[in-house]
Amino acid sequence: MDCKLIGVPLQIGAGQLGCEMGPSALRIAGLKSALEELGHKVSDFGNVAPAPFGELVHPNPAVHHLAETVAWTEALVEIAFQESENAMPIFLGGDHAISAGSVAGMARRAAARNRPLFVLWLDAHTDYHTLETTRSGNLHGTPVAYYSGREGFDGYFPALTHPVDPANICMIGIRSVDPAESAALRQSGVTVHDMRMIDEHGVAVLLREFLARVAAVNGLLHVSLDVDFLDPAIAPAVGTTVPGGATFREAHLVMEMLCDSGLVSSLDLVELNPFLDERGRTARLMVDLTASLMGKRVMDRPTRAD
Fold this sequence. Notes:
Elements: E1 2-8, H1 22-28, H2 31-36, E2 41-47, H3 66-83, E3 88-93, H4 98-112, E4 117-122, H5 143-147, E5 169-174, H6 179-186, E6 191-194, H7 195-201, H8 203-216, E7 220-226, H9 248-261, E8 264-270, H10 281-293
């Protein structure tokens, strides 16, 4: 497969600085070589940057860095669409606000291919706030609401040409949801599998059902992997740690099942904050998980001393 690495050093959507170093950490951890060793052709697009932006103010006083986030979103919509024509884009974040642009751009690409876009959201959070409902004002908590067409973004974010059908969104690993998000999600059609669902049924059952739906309609699948999907005991380099996340084996199983499905057309790797890491262990784990998604199995891995 032709893969294109696209660095997105965006950190103003989060509450803690450091995510802008994420793309560099993933590169240093050997992402390109890990994929090339699996036989993929990999090109590095480098880091992108938004166009100049002006002032943009929202009535919700908590919202911050709105104009800058909108500029990044506009840039990423175009880049995602253009760079996915003949390659699989892998977006190296950066905080989760990048997904407002990456997913919207991939939805446009799916429409150009006359195929529906599905999104697998691997995260501790649902990121389903609007500009009105966010209390923190951190816009990494809004991308799903935006790209699925919720009201409250008109006049601020770019107009969506192809909003993602909420019924095509599956969230796995959820364990931190604000009341406003919870109320909206109950009316949305989004599939939400929290950690209790994983504990009761196992992640394979939940994921297999979703992948079957994607395959049944020949959909394209965008995967958005947030570091805090993982348990902080194995992935500490994130500013939004929530205990009780996916284990090493659960995470690799998800990636291996995605590989087996042959459905994944694009990928986000987000919220890696190297400033909070321990000798690069989280960056290496994210690279390992990406390699699993792209064809590597745990049984292939050499024993490595930390």
